[in-house]
Amino acid sequence: MNGGTIDWNKIAVFLIHFSPWILVRILFLAGFAAYLVFAAVVAIQIFAMTKTVSSPLNFLVRLFGFLHFVFALGVLLFMLGAL
Amino acid sequence: MADIYLSHEKPEKKEITKTAKRIEPAVKPSMATKEPKLMAKPLAAAKAAKIKEKREQKSINELIGRGHRLPLGAFVARPRNMNFESQGREEKIILLLRRHWITNMRWIFSAIGLALAPLLLTVFPLLGSFPPRLQAAALMLWYLLVLAFTIQQLLSWFFNVGIVTNKRVVDIDFFNLIHKRISDAELDRVQDVTFTVSGILRTMFNFGTVFIQTAAEKPELSFEDVPNPSLVTKVLEKIVRMKKQ
User: B198 forms bridges with which residues in the sheet?
Assistant: First the structure.
């Protein structure tokens, strides 16, 4: 902006160099982040479920929920670096 | 040689008993010694109740059989080291029921199909125009969604249980990951137990739905697609009959 006027040159340069793949990358990263949220919900719900019905497999199920969350976090971090 | 007691020796024995009798009044008499008849009745009643409970348990165990105790099973009789949230102190789980394993085949085949779906990309290259990194990311996201679907179905099968205890019937349902419902009815309030087995698959694999009509707030509980519904019904009817006697 220069004295209240719009700098169309800068906008034109941005549009020329703009790649739609950036949007696709953002969408994919949002997808991985959503999966991380899902993994957190699963871990919390496993805790609630094992409290409601406890069995000898409680420890394994809870461990699975935790490892699944760690896996989702690892995937997101990996994709943040890769994409 | 046999002992021969002369007549004058006999009073010694009498003296011993007399001293024993003298000692007794010095000790404060307890209820048991003072009124043995009063204490005997409730003790005998408790003993009789325990014997009756053991007999009932034995008859139920004979009905159920010695097998089916794996925690991953769909029909778990007298499960070990298992309990639920609102279980009472003297409440014991007699049956723990889940949907028959064959009901999982639908989502298992769906998951396998979804996992193999990316192979179609070799025939229909939908992601051909994507950069290689984004193709890999798309594939990774697809398999994460398949994993999410599988986990949700597995947890739903494992934790949706019907429980029969020596005091009540409990139905635990998790509709999705954030919605659960627990319904229960005392055995005294169970009015009628019926079951249905309909369809070829259910008839072949012997699973069906058990309906329990109650006089509780919720008029009917149902255990859907449980294995051996006739045995479940028999056990429930027996326990209810015993409870009402």
Answer: none
